[in-house]
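Researcher: Let's do a round of design. I'm pasting the structure tokens now; please hold your answer until I've finished.
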């Protein structure tokens, strides 16, 4: 089997394993795919469209791209994405929101941006009658989120492969959750997917970027560190855990 075919086979198999293991997509589902323009979301859309054609079950896929006033070239992005969506033959919709203008604190806050984007995604799903929203989050994203929540929120929480919201009206699904970022990058190169660089002003100095650099450094000493972090919450040794924190006087 050629190298490129191995990459395609591996990624497709892992995505299928995630979808089946966590019951992400069933016949008749309407799945809204959040497409930022980066390799992860474009690969996810590409894989879901290909999978739909190869399986006996039928489900609907629609891409949604949200532009903000942080984007420096929204027209170019829209043109490139329109071309890509049409090449796949999938439905798509573009949404625009003002984030920087609405941010009264004038802070380039990741939570603020994410909250506003998700609000539009939920509204779009409701308008179009879609019950599932697919994100291109992979294993690296899950590990980074887990550490961010532990370090900055003092809690053990992360990204669920499937997350039910609004009393079951909408579910977030993450079909790439069993794949590492490097796997998705390899597939994107194999499939010759376009990649539109992010205009996010916090790409290099966010909490996530800090955690990513830390994990990369740890991997030099222990290549299996990401898998260990994923396993740790399910291997709790309560006899060796006692609450220790400062007591307020």
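Researcher: That's everything. Go ahead.
Model: Designed sequence:
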């Amino acid at each position: 089997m050629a190298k490129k075919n191995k990459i395609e086979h591996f990624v497709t198999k892992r995505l299928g394993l995630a979808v089946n293991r966590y019951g992400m997509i069933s016949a008749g589902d309407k799945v809204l795919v959040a497409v930022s323009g980066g390799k992860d979301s474009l690969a996810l859309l590409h894989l879901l469209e290909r999978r739909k054609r190869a399986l006996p079950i039928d489900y609907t896929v629609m891409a949604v791209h949200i532009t903000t006033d942080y984007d420096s070239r929204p027209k170019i992005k829209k043109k490139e994405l329109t071309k890509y969506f049409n090449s796949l033959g999938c439905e798509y919709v573009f949404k625009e929101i003002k984030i920087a203008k609405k941010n009264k604190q004038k802070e380039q806050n990741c939570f603020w941006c994410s909250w506003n984007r998700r609000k539009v995604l939920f509204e779009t799903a409701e308008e179009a009658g879609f019950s599932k929203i697919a994100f291109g989050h992979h294993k690296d994203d899950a590990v980074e989120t887990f550490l961010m929540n532990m370090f900055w929120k003092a809690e053990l929480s992360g990204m669920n492969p499937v997350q039910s919201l609004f009393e079951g009206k909408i579910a977030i699904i993450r079909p790439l959750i069993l794949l590492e970022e490097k796997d998705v990058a390899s597939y994107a190169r194999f499939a010759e997917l376009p990649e539109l660089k992010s205009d996010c002003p916090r790409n290099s100095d966010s909490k996530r970027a800090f955690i990513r650099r830390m994990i990369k450094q740890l991997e030099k000493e222990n290549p299996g560190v990401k898998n260990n972090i994923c396993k740790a919450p399910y291997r709790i040794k309560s006899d060796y855990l006692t609450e220790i924190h400062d007591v307020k006087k």
